[in-house]
Amino acid sequence: MIGFDFSGKNYIITGAAGSIGRAIAETVVACGGRVCAIDIDEKTLREMAASLPDALFCYRVMDLSSPDAIRAGFAEIIREFGQLHGLVNCAGVLSTTVFEEITQAEWDRTLAINLTGVFAAIQAVYPHMKANRYGRIVNVSSVAGKVGGGLMGRGAYATSKAGLNGLTKVVAKEGGPYNVCCNGVCPGWTDSRMINHLVDEENYDRLRGMVALRRPATALEAAYPAVFYLSDLAGFVNGEISDVDGGLTFD
Ligand SMILES: NC(=O)c1ccc[n+]([C@@H]2O[C@H](COP(=O)([O-])OP(=O)(O)OC[C@H]3O[C@@H](n4cnc5c(N)ncnc54)[C@H](O)[C@@H]3O)[C@@H](O)[C@H]2O)c1
Questions:
Q1: Of 59, 134, 157, 229, which is the active-site residue?
Q2: What is the DSSP string of the chain?
């Protein structure tokens, strides 16, 4: 039987306390991988640590809007792991403001976490992966980045995710010769902490009407394609950005 096998391999997963990041982290651990989960939400990370085996799970509380914290923290994790095999950039913040009304502070914060933080994270692991001739990097983007704003995320969010799609291809192209692959996933409407509090009855019907499958993804359904890209089953996939949107973007 062919399945995900991450045994003997080490991974950093950001946004791991969130709905999709947690599903990715728990799936990787369930398939034998060792995960260092990164998030700013210490309470959830602690809960996860209580339910997962110590040998396969550890966490670090980190503010991913700080490139300096990322560079220092990731260097320590790599030292502790010995070898890092993969990185999933799943942390993100939503911005729902229409373009005309985005404040400079909202723009800066959204770009800092969703794009600059990912740049710093990839740069922090890239030389190590390149030297080892092995790396799997997965960026969790959004359909919003492809269509000028998604179901909820608007201007700053959509721009940050469009930038992330560009960064994914850059890293794929430059990293490929060193067996460092970089791919992205673009979830659409997902049952998650990020979105659920914004979905009232009226919104729910509007969203259902936009998605061919007529429902949101579960967090696990949004996670599995990212887990696939992290795995050796995707060994020849590089620079791909997949929609995980139940039939919405159709490109
Ligand atoms: N939920 C959706 O419908 C949807 C749709 C498209 C794309 N996405 C993307 O999927 C990813 C995961 O989203 P989710 O739905 O699981 O949302 P979520 O809010 O549950 O998870 C996001 C996580 O990022 C963490 N985070 C935010 N800012 C941080 C910071 N400064 N430092 C460290 N951690 C920080 C949060 O604490 C949270 O745990 C995000 O990148 C999001 O943009 C989600």
A1: 157
A2: ------TT-EEEEETTTSHHHHHHHHHHHHTT-EEEEEES-HHHHHHHHHHS-TTTEEEEE--TT-HHHHHHHHHHHHHHHSS--EEEE---------GGG--HHHHHHHHIIIIIHHHHHHHHHHHHHHHHT-EEEEEE--GGGTTTS-SS--HHHHHHHHHHHHHHHHHHHHHGGGTEEEEEEEE-SBSSHHHHTT--HHHHHHHHHHSTTSSPBPHHHHHHHHHHHHSGGGTT--S-EEEESSSSS--
